[in-house]
């Protein structure tokens, strides 16, 4: 499956105009609401992953971060997924 590159994030998939904060694209008029909702959902998942990390629930943090990254593969999502997965692996290694 082709995914947009990080530099394409925040651009209209139809005409590549930058998002201007409105659901219709400012250049071509494409309906961007589904993409904006997807980005908002991914943000909420990243926030939940951060809270899980802070509370010490490392398996949940790793799962939430992985899901957030699958919804919107931003640099922030990638970083959070790596940190969460590493913390979870370290914790699992200390349990044995």
Describe this structure in words.
By secondary structure, the chain is an all-alpha fold. It has one domain. The chain is 60% helix and 0% strand. The chain has 3 helices and no strands. The protein has helices at residues 33-55, 58-71, 75-95. Helix 1 (33-55) packs antiparallel against helix 2. It is elongated, with a radius of gyration of 16 Å. The termini are far apart. Residues 1-7 have low confidence and may be disordered.
Rg calc: 16 Å
How is the biggest beta sheet arranged? none
Instruction: Identify the overall geometry.
Output: elongated
Estimate the helix proportion, in percent: 55-70%
Strand % is under 5%
| Helix-strand pattern | HHH
Determine the number of helices (DSSP H or I, runs of at least 4 residues).
Answer: 3
Q: Extract low-pLDDT stretches.
A: 1-7
Compute the number of structural domains. 1
Structural class: mainly alpha
Arithmetic mean of pLDDT: 86
N- and C-termini, Cα separation: 38 Å
- Give the beta-strand count: 0
């Amino acid at each position: 499956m082709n995914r947009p590159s990080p530099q394409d994030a925040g651009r209209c998939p139809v005409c590549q105009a930058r998002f201007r904060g409105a659901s219709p694209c400012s250049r071509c008029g494409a309906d961007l609401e589904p993409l904006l909702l997807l980005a908002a959902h991914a943000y909420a998942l990243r926030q939940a992953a951060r809270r899980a990390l802070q509370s010490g629930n490392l398996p949940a943090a790793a799962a939430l971060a992985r899901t957030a990254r699958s919804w919107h593969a931003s640099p922030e999502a990638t970083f959070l997924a790596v940190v969460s997965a590493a913390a979870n692996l370290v914790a699992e290694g200390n349990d044995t």
